[in-house]
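ingest -> validate -> predict -> emit
validate: passed (alphabet ok, no gaps, 145 aa)
predict: started
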Amino acid sequence: MSILIVEDDPVSSRILELHLRGHGYQTIAARTGKEALECLSSTPDIQLIMADIMMPEMNGLELLGKIREHPEWEEIPVVMCTALADPKTVEKAAELGCRHYVTKPIHVGPMLRKVHEALEEEMEKTGGSGSRRNPPSEDDKRGDA
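emit:
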């Protein structure tokens, strides 16, 4: 099981990786939408995508649209992780199938809860027998990145 982090800022990407790995998740990082699509093609066990919206060449909403065009990827949950929280952007992400949204600056506890919720919802939809991941602890709920 892997989480694909799509973030053009290397510091933000590394922070997400460290927090997710620290809580037992495996991560793969992509700096662009194109790299993300290549990762999805070459790594069949990606179970969740965390994507920024503001990226060069292909923004996160364009990436989400391309992901949803592929039947083998269309059910992968996506957590948008972005500074853009205006209603129009949030609505557009929802129209493209994004049900989870985390705003920057990242607060670790809420981010981990969104990741856990998205993975649990996917397990329920696919009839999985539960998650090997643990929900965030009380300490995680208070933490900030």
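The longest strand covers residues 46-51.
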